[in-house]
Design brief:
By secondary structure, the chain is of the alpha/beta class. It has one domain: 3-Layer(aba) Sandwich (Rossmann fold). The chain has six helices and five strands, in the order βαβααβααβαβ. Strands 3-2-1-4-5 form a five-stranded parallel β-sheet. Helix 2 runs antiparallel to helix 3 and helix 4 packs across helix 5. It is globular.
């Protein structure tokens, strides 16, 4: 059991300067991120509009990478991903490519997904989704 963080949770934390308080989800166990989340965070570094923002963002991402274990998109996760893809495509309820990778990774590793994007993830059968309400 674990807690998979969607990229938007990290983005909110970085933009707001607010650390994430995981105490309300402690029953889910350890916190993880998907390898695609790593890529999305690193892309965000490249999107920074100036060098100062790039440096701040890079420091944030490297800090996160040093603290939160990354779960890989490997052969077994790819099998789940393919099944999810076909099930959603047949229903005409496809979700974003990266969200599908996060969902497959979470399902394989028995993790709940903490996200601000519940509409997409709710389409994935069997996935435990937790709504991340941004603190005021």
């Amino acid at each position: 059991m674990g807690l998979m963080l969607d990229t938007n949770v990290f983005i909110f934390s970085e933009r707001s300067g607010t650390p994430i308080d995981f105490s309300q989800w402690k029953e889910h166990g350890d916190v993880y991120m998907s390898s695609i989340t790593v890529s999305e965070l690193l892309v965000g570094v490249h999107y920074a509009h100036n060098e100062a923002k790039r440096a701040r963002r890079s420091a944030f991402v490297e800090f996160i990478l040093g603290k939160v274990p990354v779960l890989a998109f490997d052969r077994e996760v790819a099998r789940i991903h393919a099944c999810l893809f076909m099930a959603l495509a047949k229903k005409g309820q496809m979700i974003g490519t990266h969200d599908l990778i996060i969902a497959a990774t979470a399902l394989f590793h028995n993790c709940a997904v903490l996200t601000d994007n519940t509409d997409e993830f709710e389409r994935v059968a069997g996935l435990d989704i937790l709504s991340y309400i941004k603190p005021s």
